[in-house]
Hints:
- The chain has 123 residues and is an alpha+beta fold.
- The protein has one domain (2-116).
- Helix content is 29%, strand content 13%.
- It has a two-stranded antiparallel ribbon. A two-stranded antiparallel ribbon has the order 2-3.
- One iron/sulfur cluster (SF4) binds next to helix 2.
Amino acid sequence: MIALLLEERCTHCQRCVQICPALVFDARPDAPPLLARPDDCQTCFACELYCQADALYVDPSVLNRVRVDADTVRASGLLGVYRRDSGWDEWAEAPRYANQHWRMEEVFARGRELAQAGPSKAP
Ligand code: SF4
Ligand code: SF4
């Protein structure tokens, strides 16, 4: 479940707001997004993948929101590791981390469309 947004790293790009399938974040003009609905997090790690600033930390626990402090997370060396080991974005060309995870973009895009469309009117 989403645990932290490290504001000093955040570039206000709002990509996490746009990508999150559970609408956990609220955009704020010229400021880091607000973790408005953390308990709705689905632990999908998409926000970590898309955060080029490595400003987000998602804890692997699905059921409970783990309380961790920012210093511990900074010192852990975990920030950005999920992106790197997924061969995402700037890591896509690095043979050490190459895989097919980047193909998930199609799935995420479809999910965003569905979430934004709201409940279906079909029976
Ligand atoms: S994706 Fe990362 S840098 Fe961009 S707004 Fe979200 S937390 Fe900040
Ligand atoms: S892990 Fe997934 S559901 Fe949770 S905040 Fe990030 S993008 Fe949203």
